[in-house]
């Protein structure tokens, strides 16, 4: 009988401990949030064009400003050629900060086996999208060789944008 009383006493004590520890516990619900912005992108709208020029016996340059004007050194600009800074649209999340990367080294324009180089790229990008899109311009410097061979020269360059 003593063992029956002991078992009942232990069971009663366990019930009291269980009820007491349940009364001391508390739960809370947490909240999780996430914001997703549109993927950043860039699209070319206008091709960069240094216009129509004639070379001279001395190597020269055409510095194309982001505003679409050119400063010519030791080249002759001919009437009728198209002169245009490159134009791009960056798209993404409004107010998002981004970086823009231009070519770090010269890119080559070719006409058959003849070449010229373009370097010193500049841009008008702000680094923060003022709205869902931002229009930017790109300029650069064209190196024209002495007595550069006549031809239509073309090449490509890469403009990269990334969120910060």
Architecture blueprint of SSEs:
Elements: H1 2-24, E1 41-46, E2 49-50, E3 53-55, E4 60-64, E5 70-73, E6 75-77, E7 83-84, E8 86-91, E9 98-101, E10 107-111, E11 114-123, E12 133-144, E13 160-163
Antiparallel strand pairs: 1-8, 2-7, 3-6, 4-5, 4-12, 8-12, 9-13, 10-11, 11-12
Structural classification: mainly beta
| Main sheet attributes: strand count, strand direction, barrel closure | 7 strands, antiparallel
CATH topology: Immunoglobulin-like
The CATH architecture would be Sandwich
State which percent range the strand residues make up: 35-45%
Large-scale geometry? rod-shaped
Specify Rg, calculated over alpha carbons: 35 Å
| Low-pLDDT ranges | none
* Secondary structure: number of strands: 13
Order of helix and strand elements from N to C terminus: HEEEEEEEEEEEEE
List the domain count as a whole number. Answer: 1
* Helical run tally: 1
The top-level CATH class is Mainly Beta
Average pLDDT reading: 91
Helical residue percent band: 10-25%
Span between N and C termini?
78 Å
How would you characterize this protein structure?
- This protein has about 160 residues and is mostly beta strands.
- It has a single domain, classed as Sandwich (Immunoglobulin-like), CATH 2.60.40.
- It has one helix at about 1-25, and strands spanning about 40-45, 50, 55, 60-65, 70-75, 75, 85, 85-90, 100, 105-110, 115-125, 135-145, 160-164.
- Strand 10 and strand 11 form a beta hairpin.
- The longest helix is centred in the first third of the chain and has 23 residues, at about 1-25.
- The radius of gyration is 35 Å and the shape is rod-shaped.
